[in-house]
Specification:
This protein has 355 residues and is an alpha+beta fold. It has 11 helices and 12 strands. It has helices at 2-7, 27-33, 37-40, 45-48, 53-65, 109-155, 162-183, 196-211, 232-253, 294-297, 315-325, and strands spanning 12-16, 22-25, 69-77, 83-94, 99-107, 192-194, 216-220, 228-230, 259-272, 275-287, 329-335, 338-346. The strands form 3 sheets. A 5-stranded antiparallel beta sheet has the order 2-1-5-4-3. It has a 5-stranded mixed beta sheet with strand order 7-9-10-12-11. The longest helix is centred in the middle third of the chain and has 47 residues, at 109-155. The two termini are 50 Å apart.
């Protein structure tokens, strides 16, 4: 009965002997560490457990002293070279002649990611609500301003003064267009079966033409990804905004061998915000440019936020809005020499679920 309980726990349980070799792992531990107990039984502790020497030293100290301890948000590396964020508790077990150690390991990556995604979606929704309210307050007086300028132009006998009224009309139109762009796509999505690779190839052809071949585009596609329901034109616009940003960052920084890598994969049982999806399409857009300044990273999906002096700051905000309409999400990671945007688009949506 005790063995069945251990094998059905969601928490990973690992038993180490006095030499810190694995003697038992439950199925949850095998899934977490991406290896079986037979593969890890005689492997050195550093191969699968410790990224920092202090973590391994902590196990040796617990073995010697017999004192339990807990560590929060530690980093482990499994056999697939994946870095994991975990909480773990170490309990010494007195055995015949020596102590063994019982490790309870709980993965934190998923919880941290869910919290981050919920915060990102909340911030974006709040920004969109503020923009809509601001747009309403701006567009009403703009309409009156433009109409008054047109009436004034008709009353002016001196034709040379029409230049001034035209400036008022044109600037009012420019400001109205800017507000419309801040609001993002206004029409309902035109839903049909779409192929993500056809969309990416269209984006690649547009970017290759714009860059004149100065930026290398590397494809790494998963051909097994099925078609899904979406608006092809809007998805092209969203992905083009991101890839174009990468291209401009590479060109402005004079990066050696500028490269943009586009990768597609399918992910299973992924939670986006508060909703869990059975199957998700992941589109990764990675460049080797200078990276995004740390002070901008938390704001890049807000309207009017840009790292370039000549940027409008609308491209990423519009892209996030479009992917949100498809019940998806865009995340970003960056450091000097690498910037990664990852788009998550659920594959099981039907016609009515896309808004």
């Amino acid at each position: 009965m005790y063995k069945k309980i251990l094998e059905n726990l969601g928490t990973a349980v690992v038993l180490l002997d006095g030499q810190l070799y694995i003697q038992y792992m439950n199925p949850a531990a095998e899934m977490l560490l991406a290896a079986s107990v037979r593969q890890l039984r005689r492997r050195d502790l550093g191969d699968w457990f410790g990224i920092e020497q202090s973590q391994i030293d902590g196990l040796h100290e617990s073995l010697r002293s017999g004192h339990p301890f807990t560590r929060r948000e530690a980093k482990l590396r499994n056999l697939s070279e994946q870095i994991l964020t975990v909480d773990y508790t170490v309990n010494p077990l007195p055995m015949t002649g020596e102590n063994w150690l019982l490790l309870e390991i709980e993965a934190r990556d998923r919880l941290i990611r869910i919290e981050r995604e919920e915060e990102l979606l909340t911030r974006h929704a709040t920004a969109q609500m503020l923009v809509r309210g601001l747009a309403h307050e701006i567009k009403n007086p703009l309409g009156g301003l433009r109409g008054a300028a047109q009436l004034l132009e008709r009353e002016l006998d001196d034709i040379s003064l029409h230049d001034y009224t035209q400036v008022i009309i044109e600037e009012a139109d420019r400001l109205r267009n800017l507000v419309d762009r801040m609001l993002g796509p206004r029409k309902l999505p035109d839903i049909a079966d779409v192929n993500i690779h056809a969309i990416l190839e269209r984006v690649c052809s547009l970017v290759a033409a714009e860059s004149g071949g100065s930026v290398e585009l590397v494809r790494d596609y998963d051909p097994s990804i099925p078609e899904f329901r979406g608006d092809a034109e809007q998805l092209i616009q969203a992905i083009l905004n991101i890839v174009r940003n990468s291209m401009q960052a590479l060109q402005s920084s004079n990066t050696e061998q500028p490269t943009i890598r586009l990768q597609t994969r399918t992910l299973r049982q992924i939670t986006l915000g508060t909703e869990k999806h059975r199957l998700v399409c992941s589109v990764r857009i990675e460049d080797n440019g200078p990276g995004i300044p740390e002070e901008l990273l938390s704001q890049i999906f807000y309207p009017m936020v840009s790292g370039r002096a000549d940027g409008s700051g609308l491209g990423l905000s519009i892209a996030q809005s479009i992917i949100n309409q498809h019940h998806g999400l865009i995340e970003c990671e960056t450091r000097p020499g690498r910037t990664l945007f990852e788009l998550f688009i659920p594959l099981e949506l039907n016609h009515e679920s896309v808004r």
